[in-house]
Design brief:
Largest sheet: none
Structural class: mainly alpha
Distance between the termini: 42 Å
Low-confidence stretches: 1-27, 142-168
Order of helices and strands: HHHHHHHHHHHHHH
Shape: globular
Number of strands: 0
Amino acid sequence: MHPRPGQVLELSPPNKPQGWTMPSSSHSPGSEAAACGVFLSDLCAKRGVHQSDLAKNINLMWDQRSDDHHWLEHLSLATLSRILGGNIKRTPRRKKFNLIVLAALHLEWTMAGGNGQSPGLKDVEKVWEEWLEFRQKALPQPSDQSVSDSLSSLSPSSSEAASRIGLSDTEQRRYENAYGDVGLSLLEAARSSDQKSALLLGVLRCIDDHPGEGETWLSEASSLGCRQATGLLSIPTPSERKHAAVGIALEFASSPNSAPAPNGKRVLLLEGAARAGSGEAARLLAAHYDKQGAAGHAERWSLAAARLA
């Protein structure tokens, strides 16, 4: 087998590839499938990849990477929707996982201008390692079973509190995976009834195509007296609300009428807005990275701004 021009054959097809199957676990298959859906959904959201575009690129990757079919397995749009929604009984086969990730990474690379080497199986392998780490943190370990068993002996109010703690831990992992340390900071502040943090989390989740979570945080901000959150909640459709959320992200990141967001939050908001199609956000990101001396990032966002103009 010979590589095509520009292709790097990073992996060879051994008879029994190491780590080829999803790792065995004592967790219920349903909980692992849901966690995998969250991981892949957030992976796409962070890269500005929408499900409809991802489905098209899956077909494209399948056609273009025929030499790598021993590492990939095709899947339909319906299957993709079930996987991303966690609506499957078991985690997807590793080959399906590979193709989803490869298509998402390639789509991000294309949207950024297609400079340098296109993503390949080595990049997919890195994401696989990230999933294993996320899985270990997001799902309770076998040693936690005694804690779960003890819940039955608690009063109803104590049991509900323990459930909230478990959900909070999972939520924390998801927001860290999606937004890094800045996301954790926003989450902690929003949980402490900080109006602005709740608004920004709502804006980010709306932009990243998580309308349900976005509405939850916007409702929290609105209950704390945030008029912008109330305004967003008055918009009925997710697509229109997302468009309005992009405007608020830009306002917080660059408005001369209010103090700009700190650098980490500013970049996070601008990246979300740019991935959602805002040329102005991409232009501001290019200027930001140019000022920081990060030529590669500056060029990437400058090209994105030109395409979105």
